[in-house]
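Just wondering, does anyone understand these tokens?
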Amino acid sequence: RRVSSVLNRDVKQFGKQHLFDGSEETCWNSDQGTSQWVTLDFPRPVKVSQLHIQFQGGFSSRLCTLEGCRTGEELVKISELYPQDSHAMQISFPRMLHRFQVEETVLDKLKITFGSSTDFFGRVVVYHLGVLGERL
């Protein structure tokens, strides 16, 4: 996994490891910028079906673009998600008319780009990121 930036380069307090640590008291906090991102490389192909994300209210993204690819291929857009500016856990649902929908896709790499931050400086704060699916 990789991230676009970390607030004040303080990896210990705000690093990418906090996206998946399960703690409600830690988070990934990006630095300033117009667009932030998280890239996940999976050791083998996965069929992604759902995304769980929990922002800090006031530091969320109005638009999340999901891109993915198989090994050796270029990233292609999978979905655009429109999260709420809320601290609540947000869950995508495939094949439903919903503002937060992920198309089921088989991939080895997933990139989530956070555009249009609700923070004036473009910072994004994520307490939890979960990618659900099936290993192939």
Strands lie at 2-3, 28-29, 35-55, 61-69, 76-81, 90-91, 105-117, 125-135.
